[in-house]
Amino acid sequence: MRRILVVLVVLLIGSGLLAAPAMAGDPPITLPKNPTGLPAPVELPDELDPAAPYLPQTSCSPLDMPGVLKLRDLVMSTYGQGRAGSISRSCTEGVSEHSDGRAWDWMVDPKDKQQKAAAADFLAWVTRDNGRNARRLGIMYVIYDEKIWGVYDTRAGWRPSRDHQDHVHVSLSWNGARGNVSFWTGKVSPTDYGPCVRFKGTYAARSGSPRTAACPAVSPLLARTTLGDRQYGRTGGTVKKAQALLKVPRTGRFDDATWAAVRRYQRAHDIPYTGGLDQPTWASLSPSSVKSRTATPGTRSAAIAYGIAHYGDSVIRRGRVAKAVVVLQTALGLPRADRNGFYDAVTLAAVKKMQGRAGMGRDGIVRAAEWRAMKSARN
């Protein structure tokens, strides 16, 4: 019986009644050998942009990145086919560069010959010559009709994927998303690895500046609350509670207004600018919900004494995320809402003010002398 079934399957494939699955490495559609592609708006340099590594979503933002907008507009004006789909989306769909604002869906109907031809031309142009044009644009990968091609693994060719049958999905690197690539600028930039996670279990803090070095060490959460994390796109009573505290319309939906309000609050209280209702944000926004704190330095005087004893031989500067910063923020007399363990603008202003009063250089760096100055000021 087994031998008969094998023979039947072979006959069906040979007759075309049962399609053979596409092999890994094969494109999802027939690609033209000499694609037209996209016209570059600048003179391209001889040097080629570094191939983007796979940089998955780490942040959550409803903003369409400028490089993605440029690519979308050029594709639509060049081919005039299909429909411009979405770029940024909610953060409720799992890991997706759409949630970073650096992915775009070009809606092209595979049943329409002209649209399918346009998609084939674009994909052929992007992937040709080991992804030369993908590197120019900062494209990480493209997906179409259940096949994916990545510039970070060109030897694998087109690999099996899922879905994306009615559109071409394009995910860009951070350089590509920001528009810092030779296709737009005529200059090659070093790899931008994107924003950094500052507290474990939270989103990365969005930044307008490229990152070419390693991220600082991730800090464990310094406070935990009874409230669950919420991000752009979520709904429910927990979101409504935050909206009441933030004084924005209580829609129960984590919308644009709520995202902007969360970001404003985080900037005002030295919390990494994730835009999400994470544990550091809840601990500041709703102190009554805090169930545990890793750092409890006590009174201002106690914090100063602890700092002298434990941090006199080290240096604390802007950008640090640690228990030491909570102790510093307490020693400076910052409000409870600002004692989050992240040294940013609020803490920097307080440190410089203290240094000025003590007749010290206002560089914002805390050393043994700063701890002693804080002690002297309390006596």
Automatic annotation (TrEMBL):
Record keyword Signal present: yes
InterPro entries attached to this UniProt entry: ARB_07466-like_C (IPR058593), Peptidoglycan-bd-like (IPR002477), PGBD-like_sf (IPR036365), PGBDSf (IPR036366)
Domain (ARB-07466-like C-terminal) ranges: 66-166
Positions of the Peptidoglycan binding-like domain: 248-285
One matching Pfam family: VldE
UniProt signal peptide: 1-24
Keywords linked to the UniProt accession: Signal
SUPFAM superfamilies per record: PGBD-like (SSF47090)
Protein name: Uncharacterized protein
Protein's organism: Aeromicrobium yanjiei
